[in-house]
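User: I'm curious whether this sequence folds into something compact or stays loose and floppy. Could you predict its structure so I can see for myself?
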Amino acid sequence: MHRKFFISLISAFASLALSAGESIDSLAVPIAVDSIGAISPDSLASLPFYRKGLIGKVYDYFDTTNDVHEEKDFDISFIGGPYYSSDTKFGLALVAAAQYRHDKEDKTVPMSDVSLTARATTSAFFELGLDGNHIFPHDRQRLSYSVSISYVKTRFWGIGYDMDVNPDNESKYKYVCSRANAAYMWRLGKRFYIGPEATFDYINGRQFEKPWLWEGQSDRTFNVGIGFTAQFDTRDNLTAPTEGINLRLDQRFNPRFLANKYAFSLSELTFSTYRGLWKGSVMAFQYHTRLTYGNTPWGLLSTLGGSHNMRGYFEGRYRDKMEMDATLELRQHVWRRNGVVAWIGAGTVFPKFSALRWRIVLPNWGVGYRWEFKKNMNVRLDVGFGRHEWGLNFSINEAF
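Assistant: Here's the prediction. I'll summarize afterward.
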């Protein structure tokens, strides 16, 4: 499609030149044609009006963003533009993504990554987020972190599957949210990592349309958590793995002595596998569960939906003290930097294990498009479907 786009531009420029009385000989350059009759990129680059124009510069920039620049200490690229999400509607997004190595000579260590995302939409959604993984020399330590601040106008159905599945419970509200999470791990053994973890969450809800759905909980919560992270990781890279296993356990505690009004604890387990089936393919599987115990505030309950699990469900519609989901996804490279995915999955929310029933298990399936923005860092567009619901999501990096 991008070749057709630039061929159309060439025709338009040529027409303008002719209409102005310029000789077409001034534009004459050797043009090579490939086997399908399209102008080759090398010949296109030789055209004088291609290199000098803004569109040409933008094309050149994005044509090389996925090149590996080992000579750079910090290889950063930018992408931005309009997008649409079923949860947040039309908006503008700007993403800055970077890769780097603490020790450029050690190619056996996965590259560190960091991404900064800014989003604003017509539904009064604003978000600024920073996510990354820093790999220390010889992969002896790892630091994973996530920081975000957002203002959201969204919807709430209540707490628990039976409340959430009822469309009559849908209500509007707004909230401001600030979150931070960091885990510092040491390597014990060849692929095993363990270390402390700290979290911070501030959620301030307002303008509740149906306040009784919050069951008397405070509209504003402040929580500080401490705990540990243990991980067994054999993935070939952290952002778009093609092989390996990732097994991670996060155990956190939010006790009262840390000034938490709502005291609770959380256990989160993630198990992912990646394996190639044929040329250009990756079969990815993930099982994920998030279990909370104690007096969990509404803003930190386990939820389904969004851009990472059970894609297609409205993020936060289904929420309870516990959540469980599984996804099987086929990823296929198609041509150059383009790829597609298809997945199936299932998940649910519940207050305790004894409440699990087949009737509350929600199905999930969908398809997506991938474009390699940087090496092993994809921009993705996913269309997901569920029970009486579907959604469209735009994001960076794979869902898992």
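Summary: Residues 1-41 have pLDDT under 50 and may be disordered. The helical segments are 2-19, 41-46, 48-52, 54-63, 161-164.
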